Amino acid sequence: MIADSIKQSEVKHYTTTKWASKVFLYMFMAIGITAIVSAVIGLIFTQFFPIAYGNELNEDAATAYIVLFVVAFIMYIPLILWIHFSVFKQNSRPMIPYVLYSIVMGVFISGFTMFVPFHLIAISFGLTCLTFGIMFCIGWFTKRDLSILGMIGFGMIIGLIFIGLFNLIWMLFFPGFETIYWLISYGMFAAMLLITIFDINRVKRVADQGEQSNNTAILCAFNLYVDFIYIFIRILVIVVRLYGNNK
Predict the structure, then answer these.
(1) Does the pTM of the predicted model rise above 0.85?
(2) Phi, psi (deg, nearest 5) at residue 89
(3) Closest CA to 222 of 23, 22, 21
(4) Could you give the number of structural domains in the chain?
């Protein structure tokens, strides 16, 4: 009986680890697709079909990039809905909208690859990996249910959105007042860190509960991918700002 119990525990641990590994594999696959797409688009519109020649605008290239960006923007929300609806349907393929979403995000991020120096992007990516790794350790190795962090994070985002709208109206009458903007920006960043911890903790809890379908793995990977991309963009903006202030 003891041997059977140990064997069952080992099998459960193996299947849980295997499924969790699949989640993070899907997440990093999407990050890789986004990185490749953004790099290729940035290369095309800076080297082969440049948007600008010196101080002169290349209208054809600019129009092509704007069209590409608008198409990606139109696809953004439908792809999110497609992913969530297909996850809960049998015989569906959520991997298709998941991959398309990572391509769309590559289009959005391509603006950074065109105008931000590569070393700043590399530094930001490294800091993002470090930050995500810390959030992973907190979320994965904490034995308690951290749903409260997710509730706090989402609550902060909703509150900060309303504050942001008020700040937008305020800046129309008092331009140049950026203090609230940066408080909102760093507040949103803190909220996303809390949500990241919650999402990682949820992956562990879902794995422990035995809900280890491929569709569930894709949904969990999607949530973590979104967290990672937001953290990267926020850190990149901070790094670029600090770099600009020091020049």
Answers:
(1) yes
(2) -110, 140
(3) 23
(4) 1
Which residue type occupies 182?
A: W
Decide if 245 contacts 53 (C-beta within 8 A). Answer: no
Q: What is the extent of the structural domain holding 11?
A: 2-246
Q: Do residues 191 and 157 make contact, with C-beta atoms less than 8 angstroms apart?
A: yes
Per residue in 79-130, pLDDT (tens digit) is: 999 998 888 877 778 899 999 999 999 999 998 988 888 899 999 999 999 9
What digits encode the pLDDT tens for the residues 3-27? 444 555 555 556 677 888 899 999 9
Half-sphere exposure of 77 (CA within 13 A, CB side): 2
Question: What is the rounded distance in angstroms from the CA atom of residue 138 to the CA atom of residue 190?
Answer: 15
Vertex 180, ends 187 and 73: CA angle to 5°?
65
Cβ-Cβ contacts under 8 Å for 27 (sequence gap 6 or more): 221, 224, 225, 228
Q: Which of 180, 224, 187, 184 is nearest to 202 (CA)?
A: 224
Q: 81, 79, 90, 78: which is closest to 214 by C-alpha?
A: 90
Q: Among 73, 92, 70, which Cα is nearest to 83's?
A: 92
Structure tokens belonging to residue 183: 């408080």
**Residue with structure tokens 């562990």?**
204
Q: What is the DSSP string of 7-54?
A: HHHHHHHHHHHHHHHHHHHHHHHHHHHHHHHHHHHHHIIIIIS-SEET
Q: What DSSP character marks residue 57?
A: E
Which of 105, 109, 115 is closest to 46 using CA atoms? Answer: 115
Amino acid of residue 23: V
